[in-house]
Amino acid sequence: MTFTDIQQALKSRGFDPGPIDGVWGTRTAAAVRAFQASKGLTVDGLVGPRTAAALGLDATVTNPLVDMSLVWFQAAWRLLGTTEAPGTANNTAILQWASALGIRYKGDDVPWCGLFVAHCIGSTLSAEPLPNNPLSARNWLKFGVQTTGQVGAVAVFYRGDPKGWLGHVGFYMGQDDKAYHILGGNQSNAVRVARIAKDRLLGFRWPSTVPPGSGKPVLLTPSGQLSTNEG
């Protein structure tokens, strides 16, 4: 099951998801909610097993990294490779993330890991409250509800002093013996996957408007050095 499959199934049943483009946006989420209401399902705008079955789709998840119910995590995957502009220039896409959320943001020389997480969640989960000042990585410890390391969880880390104010935030995608594998922004100035030492973790959070995830960690093979550049 892909986002395109969901959009096509909605459209064939008279619920307009917008363009059939495989991208999860507000129109697709609204169409899902309308469909759920028409079928007496829980209206959460997410395509879990019951909604998928009602749409005639197979919701079996064989790889948690491509679970279509984790719409915010899939949004993060689509942005893999996004980089900030060199020198004094700015990547206009990153500036637009802030503008769409009404966040004052002067340029991509300002750490944008929190902005990346806010964009992925804000653009896909319209009912999910974001933390105050989402640019501050440690403020994400107040987001949603506490959870464990599982695909899509918001992972918050410290930088420098554990009791200081510097931090980093991204999305859990797996772990090895020594590190969490994090899909995040501003990791060596780009959206990429980084290995971050487990002893730097401050906490995992989960969207409050989304059903609890599997709670299962994903074990991955170590690849590359531990990250030391996330600011």
Outline the low-pLDDT stretches: none
Approximately what portion of the residues adopt beta-strand conformation? 5-15%
Tell me the CATH architecture of the largest domain: Alpha-Beta Complex
- Percentage of residues assigned to helices: 10-25%
For the secondary structure, the number of strands is 6
Brief overview:
Residues 5-55 form the Peptidoglycan binding-like domain. Helix content is 25%, strand content 15%.
Features:
alpha+beta, endopeptidase fold (from Nostoc punctiforme), six-stranded antiparallel sheet, 6 helices, Peptidoglycan-bd-like, Peptidoglycan binding-like domain-containing protein, PGBDSf, CHP02594
Structure, described:
This protein has helices at residues 3-12, 26-38, 49-54, 71-78, 92-101, 113-122; strands at residues 145-146, 154-158, 167-175, 179-184, 192-197, 201-206. It has 2 domains: 3-60, PGBD-like superfamily/PGBD (Muramoyl-pentapeptide Carboxypeptidase, domain 1); 72-206, Alpha-Beta Complex (endopeptidase fold (from Nostoc punctiforme)), CATH 3.90.1720. Helices cover 25% and strands 15% of the residues. The chain contains 6 helices and 6 strands, in the order ααααααββββββ. It is α+β, with helices and mostly antiparallel strands. A hairpin with a 3-residue loop joins β3 (167-175) and β4 (179-184).
